[in-house]
Amino acid sequence: MRERENYWLRLRGRKVSRRGFLAGSGVAAAGSAAILAGCGDDDDDDDSAAPAATQAAATQAAAQEAEATEAAAAEAEAEATQAAAAAAEEPAGGPRRGGTYRAWKTQEDQGLDPAIYHSGNGEVTQQVYNHLLDFQVSKGIFSLDAAVGYEQVDSTTLVWNLREGMQFHNGEPVTSEDVAYTIARPPVLYAELGSTHQPASNFRYLDLIEAIDDTHVQENWEEPRADALIPRSRQYFAIVNKKLVEAQDGKAQEHVTGMGAGPYILSERNAEGTHLTRNPNYYSHPNPDDGFVEDGPYIDEIDVRIIPDPVTAKALLQSGDLDAYGSLDSLEVEEFDDIEEVSIEGAPAGGWSVLGFDGGKFRDPRAREAIRKAFNYAAFIASVRAGDGRFQAPLTVTNTRFQTLTQEDLATWYVYDPKDARALWEAAAADADTRGSADEKYDKIYESVEIHTITNPTMQTISDFAALSLSEALGTEFFVTSADGTTWVNAATDRTDDVKSWDLLQSGTGIGGGTDGTPGTNYLSWFDPLQYALNAFNFHYETPHPEVLEGATIVGDMMAAQNVEFDHEARVQIITDLQRWILDNTWSIFIMPMAATAFLGVSSRLRDYGKDDWFNSYSWNNVHRRESAWLDDA
Amino acid sequence: MSDASEAVQRPASETLLEQEYALPPEQRFNPLRWARREPAGALGVVLILIIGIMSGAAPLLNTTDPKSLESFTSDNLVGPSSDYYFGTDRQGRDVWSSVLYGGRISLKIGVVTVLVGTVGGTLLALIAGFVGGPVDFGLSRVADMLFAVPSLLLAMILDVVLVDKLPDLPALPAEELARVLAIAFFFMPGAFRIMRGSVLEQRSGQYVEAATLIGAGQFRIMLRHILPNITGLVIVLTTISLPAAILTEATLSFLLGSDAPSWGAELSGDSRQFFKNAPWLAIFPGAALAITVFGFNMFGDSIRDTLDPRLRGRI
Lengths: 634, 315
Description:
The structure holds 2 protein chains of 2 kinds. By secondary structure, chain A is α+β, with helices and mostly antiparallel strands.
């Protein structure tokens, strides 16, 4: 009896249970791992310390020898490090041709036609096709690509002088007819897509585009357009082969070799990614600047893998299997300390992070102002931005050619005042109570508010913070829902009803991004009643709410006025007035603080890739546009 | 009539009968004796109690509610210290608080899931095993089909599909309810299959024949005769399934995320992102999960040994 009661005696004679076996194995494995880790060689440790100490007990000479060896090794290592650093700064022989640049993107492209904005296709639209110009935002200068000159004949006429000798990838010459067709195509495509497609309004001014001889193309506009040149360097006006595109009913979604004349040929495209190969017949740029080079591009291949998980991509960069990860925040950068294979570059962040209003629900300006005053800016910058944050403006603060509002100016609008916020919210809610059930679909925000975001850790954290801050200040429940990117876009742009399925739409991490140099699309498009304010936020001309229509008219008129103003100072003044009106009225979206600095992680073998403009529309899917880039180990 | 007078008036024969059939003192359940016989199980109970009590009393243990604005601080990625016992995350939120509050969700979902899955599986097994015929055949084939589908994938799909269709219950918001049902669905076929075998075994017992002969109805036989005889197995199944349920909840939270703090969700996102410089983000939620699962495993194993000595020592 005693023996049966005694666990230890019983244990001795007992077979091992399945769970016991598994638990024991687990503990043994974990213990072994810990012991191995603890006993493992540490790079910082003295490699020879333990054996030297042991041997010292036997012979002092051996210990001295070990020390001498260690000193010699350390000296050699220091010399090698210095040599490597020197090599990194001043590579012998300058740019080298060859090598494969390895990039990544999170998802497959949604289409390849450069004239239509699709996510995930940037490396194709920017590298397989060429453009009339290239615009370097950081310097505010244009470089000539397919054009060798241009002339603004009058306020509605622009003439392009084309480079001779250009060929598409199938060997066919690039003609002025192709260029005229390229410029005329976006308005046609967007007319088919419908006026609510966000970029549609950017092309409405185009009238007659004609090839006036073999090397000249004339653009005739219906009205002046101050922003016309910069978009000629962007994807919408990527030069296409008229014959091949017309053979596909004017669409370039299914890419055929020869559709483009850019520096790279699309050689592979599948579910794993895309592969680009250098165009052997690419034309020379006889008057190169630091973007174009006469005999570029230098890199032979570009390989873009689809990696849905950014953490995996970051790990691949750390292990030397990727060449770029943009963009990182200040905390993520610390993970790259001591990794020699990766260089970190910092630049002013141009990203945005916003809560877009559903216009019908937030038609009462007091409700919008309440949101602005209920957001705890200091806590957000301290925690979510890790202390490295700043205010964003309606026009991105990094677009310095057009931005006059300072951080001090912006701080006067972005004030956390929960008491005032609650009073405004309750006043708006009280008025909503008097409207009755007819307006119920709009007024339900005073009971609870849904913030919809993308399933992404950073964006969810931003939304969580906003929901907590707004809930606490306003006394109404704000809750967060999330979806994958495609579902989120569909929810954002669905216009089957005049209310959205969400109440506030969260967009952007506020870390990366930059400006393309145009005020009209950076980021005034959020407020434009012909752009995002139309297709996403219900602040447009067709609204059934008079107070929204009044605001849309004011914003629309000012947007139109800046579009046609060629005088820079006058245009800046209009844009500044427009920004002030938007901030006063918390119009269309509420803008949360952004990161102050964005960091780019690149492999240390990548050189001359144009880091100053990496965040300014110069990297698509982590692929740089600069043809001066080269690989040190090619 | 008072209890005292009733006791006085009870027939002596009844008292004698009770005494005759009463368990001798050494066979009555004694926690201390059980702990001595099953120290591993006792250790499991202690671990479960520690985790359970700490999670339940989280607001009293120097924590900040992770779902409050004040949890966001400027102490981003600070290591363990006297201010932050388990360090802080990217947004300066206290990991100690996240682990304790996360335990509430993990334990709650784990326990409710197993109860739903085991009770549901047992009831279906009773019906299938006792009624037999087409009902048994149909339910068994449905279970077979569910076994053929990758269970984790099925749970993920159910979780995503159900979350927008369920109401918020008082103690179980829609998101948690969806997760409970998804995981319970995951467990139910297994519980059904095990319990059905036991029901079939009991059904052929002489006591069932006797009950049938004296005219007991099928429903009565099921509930009053068979169910008590398989209760031991139900308890064993419940305790053994609990750690798996907690791990499955952690897996789903890891893969799908969670609005509320949960150990699985804590192990994804920032933990992976900052593992090199802030390993505490993964270590502490991982350790809490491991300790809890270990505790339930040990406890379940001991319960099985206690209630079904025939299984002792079998792998």
